């Protein structure tokens, strides 16, 4: 059984971090998104959007893989 990093929200749709690994991943996601915005958004909009889509897809895959989602 894999470790659970994210759990179901009590109200609404989605997941929330429930372990230090989930919080660390969320902080890394925010930091990388901020760094991409600071370096790419002003002059390379297409590259910024692409980077954000790839970053978000990776984040979502890890969240789905390490969540305690309902069956």
What keyword list fits this structure?
single chain; about 70 residues; mainly alpha; two-stranded antiparallel sheet; 2 helices; about 10% strand
Instruction: Outline the low-pLDDT stretches.
Output: none
**What is the CA-based Rg, rounded?**
14 Å
Sheet of most strands: 2 strands, antiparallel
> Helical element count?
2
Describe this structure in words.
The protein is elongated. Helix 1 packs antiparallel against helix 2 (45-65). With 71 residues, it is mostly helical. The two termini are 15 Å apart. A hairpin with a 6-residue loop joins strand 1 (6-8) and strand 2 (15-17). It is 59% helix and 8% strand.
Secondary structure: elements and pairs:
Layout: E1 6-8, E2 15-17, H1 20-40, H2 45-65
Antiparallel strand pairs: 1-2
In short:
The protein is mainly alpha-helical and 71 residues long. It contains two helices and two strands; from the N terminus they run ββαα. The protein has a domain at 18-65.
């Amino acid at each position: 059984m894999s470790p659970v990093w994210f759990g179901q929200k009590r109200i609404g749709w989605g997941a929330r971090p429930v372990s230090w690994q989930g919080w660390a991943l969320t902080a890394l996601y925010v930091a990388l998104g901020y760094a991409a915005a600071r370096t790419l958004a002003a002059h390379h909009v297409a590259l910024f959007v692409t980077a954000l889509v790839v970053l978000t897809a990776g984040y979502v895959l890890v969240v789905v893989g390490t969540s305690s989602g309902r069956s």
